[in-house]
Predict the structure.
Amino acid sequence: MKTSEQAYLDLCRYVLENGTKKEDRTGTGTTSVFGYQMRFDLQQGFPLLTTKRVPFRLIASELLWFLKGDTNIRYLLEHNNNIWNEWAFKNWVESDVYDGPDMTDFGRRSLQNEDFRDVYETQMEKFKQLVLADDAFSERFGHLGDVYGKQWRNWKTTKGESIDQLQDVIETIKKNPDSRRLIVSAWNPEDVPTMALPPCHTMFQFYVADNKLSCQLYQRSGDIFLGIPFNIASYSLLTHLIAKECGLEVGEFIHTIGDAHLYLNHLEQVEVQLSRTPKALPSLAIKDSFSSVFDASMEDLEIIGYEPHPAIKAPVAV
Ligand SMILES: Nc1nc(=O)c2c([nH]1)NC[C@@H]1CN(c3ccc(C(=O)N[C@@H](CCC(=O)O)C(=O)O)cc3)CN21
Ligand SMILES: O=c1ccn([C@H]2C[C@H](O)[C@@H](COP(=O)(O)O)O2)c(=O)[nH]1
């Protein structure tokens, strides 16, 4: 069956065949191309990949966290979501109050050395408990800096005012759907130096035609095996939520990527995934009681008919 998942598998194949070897910040090494675009017709199903299991629960709780304007990982931990832990942990172990075992370069060392991995996991567990239970600690080390939630909902102007870009865009979609200015930017040059990770999904734009809402994302940097499957599902979910609030159908999600890379320690995993045959895409149901993007909760969302191939484990480059 040919579904829009093929667009993702084509990207993997394209980079395997045409990528250039390139060193990167994390020291892992990648094969990479510059400039690539995929299109997903959201009418044909919800693009949660079926050639490996992708954890929708984690994607949805991360998006709800952005939508709340929250930048502290405590909310994610409360939802048993660990995908941002390493970046907050880094701030703690590099701070002057940290007096535990040396955690320099913990991402790479925990992959290479089992003894170190045990020590690292103990420290990470301690960190998580502190963020969850200790308010002062969580205020100091749970924040990732001015990441997505902050820029979407609370962009600080030079006049000291705050702009709710997302709220403004939703209002404009309702009042003036033909607008060509339906843009949200997460890339704030002034804040980039203080962010745990400068935004990878840098800006997105909406488009309304034939009563359908489409969204295009410009992602400056994309980890094809781990990050991109999350990003596709996350922006597709965002498009569904905004369409529902605005009384529109869903159109397309268009994903434009700058540096699209496969980490060299993900190549075997990608080959396994490419050997599998895609299944029918699931669908997304949003509860009728849902009325506003900003009040959405996990209970409002349900993925129906998701029967993927098994998950494929891969290490994340920190
Ligand atoms: N190198 C890198 N790649 C990323 O995709 C990425 C970052 N860094 N840093 C910030 C966020 C965090 N994101 C992440 C982090 C981890 C997973 C991951 O490990 N996913 C697993 C499941 C994890 C689980 O079940 O807890 C997967 O199989 O998809 C995915 C996205 C996306 N981003
Ligand atoms: O949503 C996300 C967040 C991050 N990534 C990936 C892309 C890169 O592999 C790293 C970020 O490293 P930089 O050196 O800052 O580019 O994280 C992603 O794919 N999706």
